[in-house]
Amino acid sequence: MLVRPSGTEFYSLTNEHSRVLEPPPALAPETIVRGDRPASQQMLDAVAPALRRMFAGPRMKEVAVTGRGLRLIWQTAEGQRGEHLLFRQCRFENAGVGTEVLAALLADLDDLSVAINEAREARAA
Predict the structure, then answer these.
(1) Rounded to whole angstroms, how far apart are CA atoms 55 and 3?
(2) What is the DSSP letter of 74?
(3) Are 34 and 91 in contact (CB under 8 A)?
(4) Rounded to the nearest 5 degrees, what angle is found at the Cα of 97, between the Cα atoms of 78 and 11?
């Protein structure tokens, strides 16, 4: 799931998947969701509450669920626009991530993992 795409997300896994999915309600309208299996939409619907919590703030950019694990892209800081436009250089002030922020992001990933496992168990039952 990728929000606010600009076409420059070279890091995104979204384009690697062929199926376009319907984003969960209450997310940014410019959200792209893709999967690779017929059951992807059902899994997305099942974990939508966890995803809505993760994307509640403007800094979350992408969440990927793959066979290799979970991944999130979160904006730590924003470069100074003027320097980037004039010199194509980026300076990031206060780009550190505090322990409480990191703990919250890890808790979000754990919530998503639990939701995925519960959905898998429900589907298997």
Answers:
(1) 9
(2) E
(3) no
(4) 55
Residue 3 near residue 55, CB atoms below 8 Å: yes
Q: 94 — alpha (psi -120 to 50), left (phi > 0) or beta?
A: left
- Cα angle 22, 114, 71; round to 5: 65
pTM of the model: 0.82
Helix/strand/coil percent split, the chain, to 5:
40, 15, 40
User: pLDDT truncated to tens, each residue of the chain (125 aa)?
Assistant: 999 888 888 888 888 888 999 998 888 888 999 999 888 999 999 999 999 999 998 899 999 998 899 999 998 877 666 666 666 666 667 778 889 999 999 999 999 999 999 999 998 88
Domain ranges of the chain: 2-124
